[in-house]
Write a structure and sequence with these properties.
heterodimer; A: mainly alpha; flat; B: mainly alpha; 5 helices
């Protein structure tokens, strides 16, 4: 089904795409920097790193990002999803400013304003290009399974 | 952390080729993944009809999905290769922001998406914004 306008659930999925990727990267970065230096001579240390808390949380967040991203691409255009989810960069910068008390240069504030305006622009438009209705094979199969379940 | 020796800076054309490799593989990956998800259909509806297992099955039985993921993996390795030769402060903003523009072009050409003036403006604003934010 094509949604020209998004439902609250779909906005939530886009929010998850925006948040999970930068937070996942941050967790991976924090986890990797807290470990002693890894070398390819000891690959088992890299596997052990996967099970440390920060890296495990980072991987879980990145899996969440990919699942949400695929879901968003199934009902919205690529050229809508990519700019709309760029807001995650702004959230990370604001986290860095107000939570980690990092200094943000004038250039970065300009970047934040530009991304916010860009996201505002695309979010006010339709999320999907209108096309003639056509049922996809996977949806038809799902509908058949549903009907068999009713019978 | 100290760097054992100063890394020689690549020539203009070598840097151009490395950034181009990231952008091309990343754009191919995004477009193929988007095409795969459009061919699968609305995942929310599939999940409502046949559960999470049905949605995962629909995605994993789509060959385009694996083509997209393969190109995204190539993009990741191209990024690692570029980071081995150039600074993160140059590679990350350049590749992230230019990919937005190439995706808008590829979305219009290959996916036949309606990239109107609103979407072009948005892509360019976000592209410049990402550059400023990550630089």
């Amino acid at each position: 089904m094509a949604h020209a306008r998004l439902t609250p659930r779909q906005y939530m999925i886009l929010g998850l795409v925006s948040l999970c990727a930068p937070l996942g990267d941050t967790c991976l970065s924090r986890g990797m920097t807290s470990l002693p230096e890894l070398t390819l001579a000891h690959p088992s240390a890299l596997i052990a790193a996967v099970f440390t808390p920060w890296i495990a949380v980072g991987i879980a967040l990145l899996i969440g990002f990919f699942a949400s991203y695929l879901t968003a691409l199934s009902w919205a255009d690529l050229t809508f999803v990519l700019p709309a989810t760029a807001f995650g960069n702004v959230i990370v910068a604001l986290f860095a400013r107000f939570w980690l008390h990092e200094a943000i240069s004038l250039e970065r504030w300009v970047g934040i304003v530009l991304i916010t305006v860009g996201v505002g622009f695309v979010a006010r438009g339709p999320s999907l290009t209108e096309r003639p209705p056509a049922q996809t094979p996977a949806l038809a199969e799902a509908a058949d399974l549903g009907e068999e379940g009713i019978k | 952390m100290t760097i054992p020796y100063p890394a020689p800076q690549p020539s203009f054309w070598a840097a151009f080729a490395m950034i181009a490799a990231i952008i091309l593989t990343s754009t191919a990956g995004e477009v193929l993944t988007a095409a795969a998800m459009k061919s699968v259909g609305d995942l929310d509806e599939i999940r409502a009809h046949s559960g999470l297992k049905g949605a995962i099955h629909a995605v994993l039985t789509c060959p385009l999905f694996f083509a997209g993921v393969s190109f995204l993996a190539l993009a990741f390795f191209a990024l690692l290769f570029a980071l081995n030769h150039m600074n993160l402060s140059f590679v990350a903003p350049a590749s992230a922001s230019l990919t937005l523009v190439t995706n808008a072009i590829a979305g219009k050409v290959f996916l036949k998406e309606n990239v109107d003036r609103r979407r072009w403006t948005s892509a360019v604003l976000v592209c410049i914004g990402v550059y400023f934010l990550a630089h």
